[in-house]
Design goal:
single chain, 3 domains, 7-stranded mixed sheet, binds magnesium ion, Ribosomal Protein L25, Chain P, Rossmann fold, elongated, 570 residues, binds adenosine-5'-triphosphate, alpha/beta
Length: 570
């Protein structure tokens, strides 16, 4: 497995890599580079996490360093083992390896507790009896200082005794906290005697009921980095204001001091990235689960048919910076198409079938015609596709009254059947009540096998088809974006992002037909259906009836210049 996050050979450069190169030059950590990816196991990973994963593992790979996977599990109640398992699976699937360095912040609870005692003994921490509301009220604002807690000057002995009794479960939840004694007038609110420990009787997914006091994120993160001797602790911009506190704890404790560096988080158009929101979508039944193919989660993207390679390439292309921005989802889809174009086999499938009968083709004859698997890669070879008198074609490929420039099938016109023959429409059978065409009758030219025209006549349209007697019935799921607006959070007052949910984000086509070579395709297998897009076999498939998700259409809105008011579709 490779930790390289780029598919080309030039290593990426950005402000973080520049800092690391400079540290290596000055010998700050003796040339050692050690990063970590620290997810909180309170949901499934999304494409934003992929950016952080590619960055942390990518840097470790590039600088001969190491990258740990650490679960930041300081919030019992919101965290579950299910999430831990999914995160492990997703980081592996993205192609990264933490070797034996899988850690949990909860493994450090004992050490963190000792460090809390150390700060109490040094007069740098105190037990405070203010309630959560009182804490908020006395914290001050951005423009006014906070007020000292009346409990701030307790003696070391009293603090040690009270903290010990907090741990021994003598006090109710929320009745007391342990706070760092820093500066209630600091312009940085995080430095106004922040809470280090709170009382919380909640079972932890790893430590069970051993603790009824839990350290806060701020009192945990830097020390965990320090224990693991992380050299560069990369996090998103919202932690910038926490850095003075991060530094304060490691300095006051006199322990190894990692360097925290912040970068801008990934935002993508037409989607939402916060785990809290994604959980709401799952719990509200707006999607079929965390791995719904419309979700921006790693498992959703995987089920949709995304490849780890295209996600890594996308992360390499967006790079990292200090400025918040929103990336056009068309760039992600572009990386996907480039990768799928290279790797997938072309096949034929008909999504909205219309019967085509070749009147002059022998009734019981079935021919095997040779089809090319990938015109861009001859090494992928060819396969045989059965051709017969009755075929399914796409409803869209026939028009009784063809619009201008319509080169597909219409009465009297000739069209090429891909890898098959040229056929000419001679008759249309219509539903007597609706007037809709139900059967197109054609004649074929036996001299045009393989779609060739020996006499050199021009036929502009080529359409795909499957043999009616040999095709495999299938279900196909087409997707549009989950939200109708590039910024789903853009809503009128009093509404929330849910009013921008796209009611048509899923279309299920249950009467499709695919060529017989797709029988037995396994979940996760990817194909290009000629003219229709890239598709991936879904886990709902059975041996008899495959189910396909459309991963992405063929039209690349990133590669082409689009009209401004033309809403893109995946
Ligand atoms: P969310 O807001 O989606 O719940 P989070 O920041 O709470 O995300 P964590 O599990 O704490 O999620 O994140 C693990 C790591 O991934 C952190 O270092 C975090 O900064 C990073 N990360 C999370 N979201 C993004 C994003 N959109 N872009 C880049 N990095 C991200
Ligand atoms: Mg978080």
């Amino acid at each position: 497995m490779s930790n390289d996050n780029s598919t080309n050979n030039t290593p990426p450069t950005d402000f973080i890599r520049t800092i690391i190169q400079e540290d290596n030059r000055t010998g700050k950590h003796g040339g050692r580079v050690h990063t970590r990816f620290p997810p909180e196991p309170n949901g499934y990973l999304h494409i934003g996490h992929a950016k952080s994963i590619c960055l942390n593992f990518g840097i470790a790979g590039q600088f001969d360093g190491l990258c740990n996977l650490r679960f930041d599990d300081t919030n019992p109640g919101k965290e579950e083992a299910e999430y831990v398992d999914s995160i492990i699976e997703d980081v592996r699937w993205l192609g990264f390896d933490w070797e034996e360095r899988l850690f949990y912040a909860s493994d450090y609870f004992e050490q963190l507790h000792q460090w809390a005692v150390q700060l109490i003994e040094a007069g740098k921490a105190y037990v405070c009896d203010l309630t959560a509301d009182q804490l908020r009220e006395t914290r001050g604002t951005l423009t006014s200082p906070g007020a000292n807690s009346p409990f701030r000057d307790r003696s070391v002995e009293e603090n040690l005794d009270l903290f010990e009794r907090m741990k021994a479960s003598e006090f109710p939840d929320g009745s007391r906290t342990l706070r760092a004694k820093i500066d209630m007038a600091s312009p940085n609110l995080n430095m106004r005697d922040p809470v280090m420990y709170r009382i919380l009787r909640v079972t932890h997914h790893r430590t069970g009921d051993r603790w009824c006091i839990y350290p806060t994120y701020d009192f945990t993160h830097g020390q965990s980095d320090s224990i693991e001797r992380i050299t560069h602790s990369l996090c998103t911009l919202e932690f910038e204001n926490h850095r003075p506190l991060y530094d304060w704890y490691v300095r006051e404790l006199g322990i190894f001091a990692p360097q925290q560096i912040e970068f801008a988080r990934l935002n993508l158009t037409y989607t939402m990235m916060s785990k809290r929101r994604l959980l709401e979508l799952v719990e509200g039944g707006h999607v079929a689960g965390w791995d719904d193919p419309r979700m921006p989660t790693i498992c959703g993207l995987r089920r949709r048919g995304y490849t780890p390679e295209c996600i890594r390439e996308f992360c390499a292309r967006i790079g990292v910076s200090k400025v918040d921005s929103t990336v056009d989802i068309a760039l992600l889809e572009h990386c996907l198409r480039v990768d799928l174009n290279r790797r997938t086999q072309r096949v034929m499938g008909v999504l909205r079938p219309l019967k085509l009968v070749i009147d002059n083709y022998p009734e019981d004859q079935v021919e095997e015609l040779e089809a090319i698997n990938n015109p861009e890669d001859a090494s992928m070879g060819t396969r045989m596709v059965p051709f017969s008198r009755e075929l399914w074609i796409e409803q869209d490929d026939f028009r009784e009254v063809p619009p201008k420039k319509y080169h597909r099938l219409s009465p009297g016109k000739e069209v090429r059947l891909r890898y098959g023959y040229l056929v000419r429409c001679v008759n249309v059978v219509k539903d007597p009540s609706s007037g809709e065409p139900v059967e197109i009758h054609c004649t074929y030219d036996p001299d045009t096998r393989g779609g060739n025209t020996p006499d050199g006549r021009k036929v502009r349209g080529t359409i795909h088809w499957v043999s009616a007697s040999r095709a495999v019935p299938a279900e196909v799921r087409l997707y549009d974006y989950l939200f109708t607006k590039p910024d789903p959070g853009d809503v009128p007052k009093g509404e929330d992002y849910r009013s921008n949910l796209n009611p048509n984000s899923l279309e299920r086509l249950t009467a499709c037909y695919v060529e017989p070579s797709l029988k037995g395709a396994a979940p996760g297998d990817r194909f290009q259906f000629e003219r229709l897009g890239y598709f991936c076999v879904d886990k709902d498939s059975t041996a008899e009836r495959p189910v396909f998700n459309r991963t992405v259409s063929l039209v690349d809105t990133w590669a082409k210049i689009k009209k401004a008011n033309d809403r893109p579709r995946p």
